[in-house]
Amino acid sequence: MMAIKGILFDKDGTLIAFNNIWGPLYKSMLVNHFGYDEQGALALLQTTGYEPETGNCRGGSPMAAGTLEQIMKVWWPDLSPAEREERRQFVNANADKNAKNFIEPLLELAPVFDALQAAGYILGVGTNDSEDSAKRHMEVLDVHHYFHVVLGSDSVDVPKPSGQMVRRFAELTGLRPDQVAMVGDNGHDIEEARAGGAGLAIGVLTGNSTAADLEPHADQVIHSVGDLLKFLSTVA
Question: Which residue among 78, 100, 153, 231 is the one 20 to 30 A from 69 at the CA level?
Fold first, then answer.
């Protein structure tokens, strides 16, 4: 492993409180725009991993780790490709418009990113959300200026865990993949790191995966991104 010079962060569950966003946002959308009653909306959400009794999503489920396209194929399998694309665009636009009402950072992020930048790390975001949505979320949190690159599922040919996000981040920042640490809360993030040739795969426990889920596969599991610089200083 070469010295780590770049850090690619997953978004939901890593930087943003995942369960505060997508369950309530999608439920509201299904009720208000697609004609479901509350129970019908919850039943549909459950098919993609949402757990109404806790408000969480199962680690590794489509809602926790998948793309909107993957979620929609479960919700509405009989749509034609054209119908699915039309609905995807509507859902994306509606989610972008309303996400600001739900977004909450997992911790105060600016001091974390200030310290990482001061230590010389190049920062990026790599999420299975769309690129535009990810950029807007970072703007809502007023941390967009820290990132050299923000990548979504539509920024690459194949989303996580194909490895393409790690390689694309490396390409755009002039790094080698093995100079990149991938940080995320889900098994997909660890798989993305491995497939992309990242130097480190780091799990965080602020999302929907447990230590037991992540530790067998990650190089290191930390509580949150707030612990990242301390860990990286031990492997520099």
Answer: 100
